[in-house]
Design goal:
The chain is of the alpha+beta class. Helix content is 24%, strand content 30%. The protein folds into two domains: 160 residues, D-amino Acid Aminotransferase, Chain A, domain 1; 166 residues, D-amino Acid Aminotransferase, Chain A, domain 2 (Alpha-Beta Barrel). It is built from seven helices and 18 strands. The chain starts with a strand and ends with a strand. Bound molecules: pyridoxal-5'-phosphate (PLP).
């Protein structure tokens, strides 16, 4: 793929010394590529970060034909930039595209694009403890048209945002509200796809939990409100009687790269890992029998996010005295050591830019 590069003549001041947070600052450049029916993907380019110009009739605004991805570039102690399992994100991108009738992207081209934009804004990878450069690829339908059908024109864009440490004050487990009214996804829907529409559908429940003093929602299945799907925007794991259990991928769950990494790492530690249906009743019964050892969410942003409390309609359980458990801590330490290049990468997960 030929990528043209047009560097900005007015670089921005970098936000070093400021509180980065998540998704507040954007780098100097972005990657853009167009799709036209009959012509395919074309005009791959790196251009200054700037507003897109779209018709108000662009299909993405009306029927949400949109997909996105999320990954990070990490700066090592030697100043190298590492990506973490980017091929997994690219495979997932094409599974999402397939579900949303968005054209496929050649996996090699997608990786080349990610590497090229990270390389162009390499100076923007922060080097404070726990900080990284968040990478947000996304595709939108751009035809100016109000009929409902798959679009014929798309933009693939990659933007970058330097982000702060997720846990600047150490890992504190969060309080979770078990949601039994609203659902995030159903089998046959788009729950397994990384699509903006899933997030729009989740906001009402997230707000409800927040207003009740909870940080995240534990999502139950959309049919019986019985089986656990995910937690907030993360995959979910429970340690019951020494066994690590996570809901199986059956269509309503997003197949997280962190989820897959946690499963592989835990197995390498000699822990029994099971992917299966897990009901909220089983989790409560385990907690009441003193067998619920740990519970945590997994995702690119937080890596591991321990859960300290569950509230199901006023029935509250406290997990591991509200503290992070030993397996959660070990998984967090091992994964972050691999991501920042501090530990040997036995699985071959990192990719140098
Ligand atoms: C992105 C995402 C995850 C986590 O996926 P990772 O690849 O581990 O970052 C989990 N659940 C939902 C709904 C997501 O959108």
């Amino acid at each position: 793929m030929n990528i043209t590069v047009n560097r900005t003549s007015t670089p921005k001041e970098k936000p070093w010394g400021k509180t980065l947070g998540f998704g507040n600052y954007f780098t100097d450049h972005m990657f853009v590529m167009d799709y036209t029916e009959g012509k395919g993907w074309h005009d791959a380019r790196i251009v200054p970060f700037e507003n897109l110009s779209l018709s108000p009739a662009a299909m993405v605004f009306h029927y949400a034909q949109e997909m996105f991805e999320g990954m990070k570039a990490y700066k090592t102690a030697d100043g190298e930039a590492l990506l973490f399992r980017p091929q997994k994100n690219i495979e997932r991108m094409n599974r999402t595209n397939e579900r949303l009738c968005i054209p496929q992207i050649d996996p090699d081209d997608a990786l080349e694009a990610i590497k090229a934009i990270v390389d162009a804004d390499r100076d923007w990878i922060p080097d404070g403890e726990g900080t990284s450069l968040y990478i947000r690829p996304f595709i939108i339908a751009t035809d100016p048209h109000l009929g409902v059908r798959p679009a014929k024109n798309y933009i693939f864009c990659i933007i970058l945002s330097p982000v702060g440490a997720y846990y600047p004050e150490g890992i504190n487990p969060v309080k979770i509200y078990v949601e039994d009214e609203y659902v995030r996804a159903v089998k046959g829907g788009i729950g397994f796809a990384k699509a903006g529409g899933n997030y729009a559908a989740s906001l009402r429940a997230q707000k409800k939990a927040y207003d009740l003093g909870y940080t995240q929602v534990l999502w139950l299945d959309g049919v019986e409100r019985e089986y656990i799907d995910e937690v907030g925007t993360m995959n979910v794991f429970f340690v019951i009687d020494g066994e690590l259990i996570t809901p199986a991928l059956e269509g309503s769950i997003l197949p997280g790269v962190t989820r897959d990494s946690v499963i592989n790492l835990a197995k390498s530690f000699g822990i029994k890992v099971t992917e299966r249906k897990l009901s909220i009743n089983e989790v409560y019964a385990a907690a009441k029998a003193g067998k619920l050892d740990e519970a945590f969410g997994s995702g690119t942003a937080a890596v591991i996010s321990p859960m300290g409390e569950l509230n199901r309609d006023g029935d509250i359980i406290i997990i591991n005295d509200g503290k992070i458990g030993p397996l959660s801590q070990k998984l967090y330490d091992t994964l972050t050591d691999i991501q920042w290049g501090r530990a040997e990468d036995k699985f071959g997960w990192t990719v140098k830019v």
